[in-house]
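Researcher: Hi, I'm a grad student and pretty new to this. My advisor asked me to get structures for two proteins we've been looking at. I'm not sure of the right format, so I'll just paste the first sequence and hope you can take it from there.
Model: That works fine. Here's the first sequence with its structure tokens right after it:
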Amino acid sequence: MSVRQSTFQLMTFLLLILSMDCMKHKKYSASGSKQNKKTYPASASKSIKEQTEEEQTPWTDRLVQCGYQNHSFTPEERSEGTFLMKMIKWPKPPNSSVPFEKSSNPARVGFVILNSAKTFYVGDQLQVMLQMYDFEGHPKRYGGDYLQARIHTPALKAGSAGTVIDDQNGIYRINFNLFWPGKVKVFVSLVHPSEGIQALIRLREERPERVYFKSTFKSGAVSETSVCNLCLSQSQPLCNFTDPRTGEPWFCYKPKELPCSARVTHAMGGYQKGLLIGEEDHYFQSKVNIKKPILPRGRNYVIVNPSPTAGRSLGECVPGKPLFSPSGFYFQDKWMSTNCNIRRFHSPANVMGCLRGKTVYILGDSTIRQWFEYLTRFARLRMLGLKTQRAANKRLINSQFAEDAVNKIKMEYYPHGTPIRIIPILSQDLTLIANKLDDIKGENSTVIAFGIWCHFNSFPVETYIRRLQNIRRSILRLLERSPDTVVVIKTANVQALPDEVSLYNSDWYSYQLDLVMRKMFEGINVAFVDAWEMTLAHYLPHKTHSQQVIIKNEVDVFLSYVCPL
């Protein structure tokens, strides 16, 4: 049988199943933005009683178990949390235990470009379809696999992310917007099989302590180290370090000799091992079913022709605009937003001209700290030195500061508070983003950028929702007292997932948190830098800390909101 005949038969089979349209479908985009409001159907393996009990369980129950105070939630926050937990609910396999041989095998799958013989123009939409197969070669009849997809033209350094539609019957459709002319190639990969995602859900719910932390307690010549965490077992006496302003809890096991007040530092402890049970380890094999490319069945490209009517004028970049998907694309290694006109800050003078007279606060994890490092280096700001302190022959990294006295530019970076994974930091410098925002007076010369996601990947989603509720409340207060303050949010980004990294920092965990964050800040006068699509659409390998060409594009988008055209 020829390749043309094989491809035709596969397309006929896919279209026949698709035309039945007998099951609900779910869209998830590369940007993490939910495309429809349908929720996943309840698992068939659950009884009606179990489903009813699950629906009636308040989402705050998990938070109370982790040390949050039940009385601190408003009715609106309770309702929002319930909605968000339903919004990100993921479909489960029909059976609670699926043999590995029945799980998704990307090596047996091939995607097909629909209407590949059609004449495509810039502005058209391209659709790809695939049927998932298991290791025995049988087509799967349920969905829940997590796929990522992009289109790319290497010669033009052009790329864009796609939107995946899960029909929940083993068939997936992927839509791409065609933004540039030329030979456009399609790339699809299976990030996690549906069976592996069930293991990730179990770990998130049952093993939140799998990333653990430690604090040093010191008094005179006596020093002790203790394990710390958010959802910490009460098997022994605890030190309670709950933040009095936000109510965000944090605990350490009480040292044997020293009092809780002797706490000096906070630091990353390590990763627990031996987390997988049964056949779960089979679902996390780097060259088998984690970020495994899916090959085409037929050709993997289309030729796109120019279209004189495809262009449209864009306005300036101002906060408050909704974030749609796709939010942009790369062309000649430059990010082109579909939302507004991006400025290019190619020289230190461009950056300094934009930031002249401004104070910039950058808050969050190390992926947004890269903005601080890029700006201070590129704009040649004078570092005022790291705010550090030496203790027990270890340098403690806290906040970072830089300035340009001539142009009256000040820039400050603060890591977000617990549960940040970091080398030792002074415990009194663990500033929660919400508290820092409340301490900033704010004015038209104040710029704030924050990003917080990665370090919450190993915790129940409920804790992330609560953290964002506190941050959002502080942002609303800030914008009320100073409406001209510019607030920019960096979204999550994709990363490499070798070996066991998925168990702590999977892209699927990040994707779920990103969904929550985007939804929670809808309709608020803030701006987004869509790092998710900007990392997924680029040709460079995925990394937690993106390479400089991507960081430059992220910073250009950020500065475009600070100094719009």
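Researcher: Oh nice, that was easy. Here's the second one.
Model: And its structure:
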Amino acid sequence: MAARDTWQRGQRCGWPLARAKLPILRWLPHYSLAWLQSDLMAGLTVGLTVVPQALAYAEVAGLPLQYGLYSSFMGCFVYCFLGTAKDVTLGPTAIMSLLVSSYAFHQPVYAILLTFLSGSIQLAMGLLHLGFLLDFISCPVIKGFTSAASITISFNQVKNILGLQGIPRQFFLQVYETLRRIGETRAGDTVLGLACLAALAGLRVMKSHLPRAACVEPLAARVSHLIVWTSATARNALVVLFAGLVAYSFQVMGSQPLTLTGSIPQGLPPFQLPHFSMATPNGTIPFQTMVEDMGVGLAVVPLMGLLETVAIAKAFASQNDYRIDPNQELLAMGFANILGSFVSSYPITGSFGRTAVNAQSGVCTPAGGLITGTLVLLSLAYLTSLFYYIPKAALAAVIISAMVPMFDAGIFRRLWRVKRLDLVPLCVTFLLCFWEVQYGIVAGVLVSGILLLYSIARPAVKVSEGDVLLVQPGSSLHFPAIECLRDTVCSYALTASPPRSIILDCCHISSIDYTVVVGLRELLQELHKHGLSLAFCSLQEPVLQVLLSADLEGFQHFSSREEAELCRGAEAGARGEAPSTSSSESLLLPEGLTQ
């Protein structure tokens, strides 16, 4: 009996924990046939999008095209069990592919090891609940990075639109070489590439202006609406299929004016541990050297992957009225990348475009990812021979079409109107990303951090003049700010005519540290030398406890500003100081800032 009771208690305790760590247990018991129909349609639609995009993004990453497909199925399966957002799809993206091209040096072994290490870091962050670190990457830095990435990735594909070979990957050299060799343009690639771009743009506009189909409409109208909607949603697959048919037709006729993708190995990737060293003609590169080569990429890649996934998940959760667990998302990303490295995947993250397609297709649960992943596996097993005829210009058009909407030109105007100082990290990130992506991101984060630290070190201070001087810091006090506060208080107290005592209004101060306590002790002593006093009012309980524990000589505090002013005014009258005939306020901002 005791053993049975113990087992039942364990079941009651273990089930909530299992539901928390395996979100699939929350919705699977309620799964229905209606959900299955919606998930099946959404999974197929996303699958038709992911296959051509995977091939195109592998080109961006500088890897053989099959690695794009290798990276497109494991995330779908893992997220079905561990993800908390029904809409999110994991896989290769343009941003992550650009980062991989910078840190994997176009070597699959490096890319796969980067996947394993990034997943391990993400998993550790999830277990330690370190998702808050993403909050230190500000919106201007993200916007600067994505806007620069949209330009660099798009221009990187111009060579395929023009049919040029041997163009370097560094952005400025790329621009120079493309313009220098513009006369070598292949007419076939250019015509097909521009036609694909026009078709993709037209289908995108068609979808955005497509009205909703009403249930009362005739069956033929609803079927027509479904056909048009499906065609516009799966536009990438349709355009690539059309371009492949054109290329195959030329091949049959015995002439080929197009640059083709070429042979892609058929079959599923082997399930194996990633290689922790790499054999080269000059010897073996050990694990330590590979890690040193990847350098800052081991921080940038996992952080940007998490940032992209969590941002997308939060956006669609808000839009579709459900909640996500950010730390669980970190666990899902970590497991997806670790297991992905066993099937030769390069780092993956949430895809905004495919997540939007998933949501618009009416997906009900993460089970839609099982359908998408299965479709990718079937493509690898049976269809790779057909990918030979896909023109590179068509894949380039798919990438450019996906990248153009990512450039947010309006962010510059909005920041100029709202907070001009935020243009600094935006522009630093934007410009340096054209040189090297990692330099742009790191520099943007550093500039944002400096601006944040400056605001902490130089908080705004409001000074109200009257019988006594009322000084009100605009935010919490930390050790970099105490010298600034001391200088402000002393300059106002001692230069006033006559010199006046100070009331420090602490209503905005929620915490202080030991250095601040030391600075306040020195301020009390300095004012006391000149026959002036310093009183505190509106102290919050944690701050009051710290100051009482410090046992400051001459420490006085009042519960409200009115009580402090009344008491200090009475003291000033008792000393025979002339009352002030006017009252004014001034707001001191950090040096270099304007209101």
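Researcher: Is there anything I should tell my advisor about the second?
Model: You could mention this: The chain is about 60% helix and 5% strand.
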